[in-house]
Amino acid sequence: MGVLDGKRIAIVATDGVEEVELTAPRQAVVDAGATAEIVSPAGGAIQSMNSDIAPSATYPVDRVAAEVSADDFDAVILPGGTVNADRLRTDADVLNLVKGAFAANKPVGVICHGPWTLVEADLVKGRTLTSFPSLRTDIRNAGGTVVDEQVVVDRGLVSSRDPGDLDAFCEAIVKEFAGA
């Protein structure tokens, strides 16, 4: 039996998602017993990228953001990828899903550019997190405290800086999600 048996995890992503930031956390939660579903603004498949510029594999979308709510999941993962994060933060259904997760005190994991969605949803005020360096001013301007650490856990919010932090990030999300 895994520590996440019976848990449903939403991995919110769209075209431009950094592939390893989608696949490594997904594998970590699945290996721990969870069901992980890719939730995206549109159906079909999403195009992942390597280092933001090299197209990689495509991944089928399991659920469309407009058709789900935070009640459908036990936790949420927001992988990075500059284009992915920029697109997600402008989608009202994605913002509603993430706001719903925070309102219900469900754990959320964000890595790299993933915090952009939290900034847009006005969810970083009073929180401590980390991110890719180019987002740090945005987080501070939105009322968050930024630290440069491999992984930060703040009241159910797990954050990491970049793909180099994935081992620590995956370990932290599994632990945080198990406690939810």
TrEMBL record:
Keywords: Hydrolase, Protease. The keyword Hydrolase applies. PROSITE patterns: PEPTIDASE_C56_PFPI. It comes from Pseudonocardia oroxyli. Residues 7-176 form the DJ-1/PfpI domain. One of its GO terms (biological process) is proteolysis. This is Protease I. InterPro entries: C56_PfpI-like, Class_I_gatase-like, DJ-1/PfpI. One of its GO terms (molecular function) is peptidase activity. Belongs to the peptidase C56 family. CDD domains: GATase1_PfpI_like (cd03134).
